[in-house]
Design goal:
By secondary structure, the protein is mainly alpha-helical. It contains four helices and no strands.
C-alpha cells in the first residue's frame, strides 16, 4: 500500500471509533492495532518506524502531526 492509502485507512478507522479511544491511544498504538496487527513486525519499534514512514509523530495523538523523519 502507498502512504496516502494507509493514511486514509487510519483516518476512516479513527472517525468510526469512540472519541475516548483516540484520546487514550498514541499514533503508534493505532498503527499497531490497524495496519500491523497479526504481522511478524507488529512490535512497538516497528510500529513507531511505520509512523515515521507515514510522516507522523509516533507519540502524538493527531495524524496531522508532521514528524520530521
Amino acid at each position: 500500500m502507498n502512504k496516502e492509502t494507509e493514511l486514509r485507512i487510519l483516518r476512516n478507522f479513527i472517525r468510526n471509533m469512540p472519541k475516548v479511544y483516540r484520546q487514550r491511544n498514541m499514533n503508534w498504538v493505532i498503527v499497531m492495532d490497524l495496519l500491523m496487527q497479526g504481522t511478524s513486525t507488529s512490535g512497538g519499534s516497528s510500529c513507531m518506524s511505520k509512523c515515521r514512514e507515514l510522516g507522523m509523530n509516533p507519540y502524538g495523538y493527531r495524524l496531522e502531526d508532521n514528524y520530521d523523519v
